[in-house]
Amino acid sequence: xxxxxxxxxxxxxxxxxxxxxxxxxxxxxxxxxxxxxxxxxxxxxxxxxxxxxxxxxxxxxxxxxxxxxxxxxxxxxxxxxxxxxxxxxxxxxxxxxxxxxxxxxxxxxxxxxxxxxxxxxxxxxxxxxxxxxxxxxxxxxxxxxxxxxxxxxxxxxxxxxxxxxxxxxxxxxxxxxxxxxxxxxxxxxxxxxxxxxxxxxxxxxxxxxxxxxxxxxxxxxxxxxxxxxxxxxxxxxxxxxxxxxxxxxxxxxxxxxxxxxxxxxxxxxxxxxxxxxxxxxxxxxxxxxxxxxxxxxxxxxxxxxxxxxxxxxxxxxxxxxxxxxxxxxxxxxxxxxxxxxxxxxxxxxxxxxxxxxxxxxxxxxxxxxxxxxxxxxxxxxxxxxxxxxxxxxxxxxxxxxxxxxxxxxxxxxxxxxxxxxxxxxxxxxxxxxxxxxxxxxxxxxxxxxxxxxxxxxxxxxxxxxxxxxxxxxxxxxxxxxxxxxxxxxxxxxxxxxxxxxxxxx
Length: 505
Hints:
Blueprint lengths: L1 H29 L3 H39 L1 H37 L5 H14 L3 H16 L3 H5 L1 H19 L3 H14 L3 H7 L13 H34 L3 H36 L3 H28 L1 H9 L6 H14 L2 H17 L4 H25 L1 H27 L4 H29 L4 H22 L3 H16 L1
């Protein structure tokens, strides 16, 4: 897992960095005004509407494919894949037609604060961008297929391509003075980013067959297993709609401010949490299929601790340096100092989300690998009810900051629940070991944070970039020294592996 996870982190880091460059272009040209609000709302609606299908497929495809391949061979497993893809094309078509028909209602639901021209433009953008649902449906299966065949690079690199294409169409829209190019370009970018998939799939011996069989027992099993996942994602969608709806009523540009803050959060979670869980899930599925409980639990525990080692110091550092980070990444053009201030303060309240998100995400993968889709929905429903309730209460008191804090509290609650329920059902995870290592890492991160704060404020009078770079570099060195003295097994294992690899060379 370690080598694969590291490779995925590098790829994801490149993807996230290019994604930040993309957002810098959007911030420069569009700021936090009306057009970027419209674009962000319109791109989120089709995905949210269809995300329950995508998540259901992602959660159940890999275990079912692995089981078919083990019992009947690759040919039958590939036929199942073809059948699933064809069924998803059919479902996607119906979904797109419904989005076209109910776009006005969806915009009112997602952004009740939009009126007049802003609302009408959001409706038109939503209809155009809904065509990208086809790509989302296909990629949900084919990316899982490539991951099963250890083609992680091919599966994860398309996002980098899309980032450059989005920038191209943004600049084209600005130069030609036609904002509809933004929506059309989004759809074209989605299509082009997976253009090399067919060749990669053929390399793995996959040949698509145009078969549609709704009565396939494996499809029925997938639907049955997906129902709790679908309900879980539907609950998450309620949370997403709640966040956007409240943000659209608080301040003009509120949706975009929340999005920019979330992007920095997602930079860390995408590089670390998603990479680790993506590389871990196929292994967990195999261990669950083989009833190898020891390797299953060792992998789950190691994945969580490795995630903590990376995300906890990142959380502390970004909370302390939120203003210079946002200033460096976005403050230029139409993204002014006021936008920086609001985004940075929102980010501070957002960042604790990453701890709960990490734990919950990894444990949900463990539940799915064991074909347990019931428990994750319980966790998700509690998270969403908490988030929506706190959104209603805190947005009146704290505005956008309240929405971000509500997200953090609900995510932390979900993470705690995931661990407790897993222990209750399987009685195998070493919670004490997990907590001791987490507290060690948190302690090291807080000491690092003290250093970060003091170095930044000592140097900021010279120049904020010097202060930012200096505080980050020194903080990394301080954290590494402290974490080494704490002798956390995962850190020592990584060092030993690196040392022996260096000796062999």
